[in-house]
Specification:
Largest sheet: 5 strands, antiparallel
Structural class: mainly beta
Helix content: under 10%
Radius of gyration: 14 Å
Oligomer: single chain
Number of strands: 10
Order of helices and strands: EEEEEEEEEE
Strand order of the largest sheet: 6-5-3-2-7
Number of helices: 0
Distance between the termini: 18 Å
Strand content: 35-45%
Length: 117
Amino acid sequence: IEFRTRGGGNGKRFKAVLRDSTEFNGICWTSSFDAPKGAKGGTVRLPFAKMIPTIFAKTVEGKTLLKENVVGFQLAYSKFEYDGGLNPKFELGDFSLQLMWVIRLMRSNVISDRNDA
C-alpha cells in the first residue's frame, strides 16, 4: 500500500492498518512507520508482505492477508507498538497528519487510482 501525507507528522510513529474482514474485532494487518518530517510531507510505501497480523496490538500467528479482500484502511497514532511494547515516538498532545491519497499496489501495478487533492 502506498500513501502520501502532508505536514504535521513531524517524524511521529504511526500505524497503518488494513482489514481484510468486516469482523468487528477481527485481524488488523498493521505496519508502523515514521511520518515524513516537514510541511511538504512525503510518500510512504508499506509492502503487504511486511504487514503484521494483530488483534488489539498483540501479534497473531498463522494468518494470511487476503489482499484481494481489503475492506478497510486506517492510520492510528498509538502509545503502543506490538505485544505490550511502547511507541518510542509517542507524545501526549495535539498532532495532525493530512492524508493526500492512498493506492494499493500489487506486482508493481496500480490496482486502484489515487485522487490527488
